[in-house]
Amino acid sequence: MQVGIGELFSVSSAACWAVGVILYRQLGRELPPVALNLLKNGVVVALMVPTVLIAHGLALPQISGWSLALTALSGILGISVADTLYFRALNTLGAGRIGVLGNLFSPCVILLSFFFLDERLSLLQFGGFVLVMFGVLLVNRPVLNDPLPASQLRRGLLYGVTAVALNAAGVVMIKPVLEQEPFFWVCLLRLLAALVPMLWLWRWLPAHHRMPSWRGVPWRRLVIAAVFGQYVAMLFWLAGYKYTSASVASILNETASIFILLFAWAWLKEPLGRRKLIGVAFTFGGVGVMLM
User: Fold this and answer.
1) pLDDT of 24 strictly over 90
2) DSSP code string of 179-219
3) What does the longest C-alpha to C-alpha distance in the chain come to?
4) What is the C-alpha to C-alpha distance for residues 111 and 105, in angstroms, rounded to an integer?
5) For FRET with 163, which of 21, 80, 119, 230 sits at 20 to 30 Å CA-CA?
């Protein structure tokens, strides 16, 4: 397989998302999951509107009703529900265990792409997939010196697995739309569709699930996380699915766990042992095989 722009977009998305995850982990200590999801998507919508105007002008796109329905459903499942559950799981389990659950994403996408998009991996690509998965699992193998209570662990696993599955379903259903419709319009409409149920839900949330006062929101960190971890990462992520197969893009997205590890070592001074370094080598080796 020749290295194409889709593969480069997918790896770049993983790196940007890793920056966001580190910041979201910090933000999760101050903001409830629904509030964090709503605020970061609000920031991204504010960025997407001028992006659409610059890229496509004032003319409205001629998008079919079926494509609009798929875009809206993808936004609701993949952003409204999945991201909220992901942030809740991140708060419950911590970044390490979430990294393990994130490994379910590419198998889910590959399985759904097999049935709904008729995509197949070559033998070489499958070998790269195995190397990537092995490396990521090796890096994220939990060390349970201080295990979570069983009920908290089960609850976090339920949140995380559901988030990954819904995210995979959302991206598989929108891939045909990305290939046919204006790219930035699809991104904006997907975000707007995601905001609707969150704004509706906001009315019924108890006070402790809402955000603090506007002055209590760490805006600087939130904006940086939204720009890199959502806006740029989302554009690269969806562009990867537009310009390469969903199966290949999902496997390359798995490198996010490795970027998280390296960024945490560089910025947060977290230890980087031999096992983790071996995992990094396997993962990037797998990416290299995927791109051959």
Assistant:
1) no
2) HHS-HHHHHHHHHHHHHHHHHHHHTT--GGGS---GGGS-H
3) 58
4) 10
5) 119
If 0-12 CB within 10 Å is exposed, 13-18 middle and 19+ buried, where does residue 267 land?
exposed
Are the C-beta atoms of 109 and 255 separated by less than 8 Å?
Answer: no
Per cent of the chain over pLDDT 90 is: 24
What is the rounded CA–CA span in Å between residue 158 and residue 162? 6
> 165, exposed or middle or buried, with CB in 10 Å at 0-12, 13-18, 19+?
middle
Q: At CA 280, angle to CA 147 and CA 159, rounded to 5?
A: 40
**Residue 285 confidence (pLDDT):** 81
Dihedral sign computed on CA atoms, order 237, 240, 245, 250: negative
Contacts for 277 with CB less than 8 Å, ≥ 6 apart: none
Rounded distance between C-alpha atoms, residue 229 and residue 131, angstroms? 25
Percent with pLDDT over 70 in the chain: 86
Question: Which residues touch 39 (CB under 8 Å, ≥6 apart)?
Answer: 31, 211, 217, 222, 226
DSSP 104-121: THHHHHHHHHHHHT----
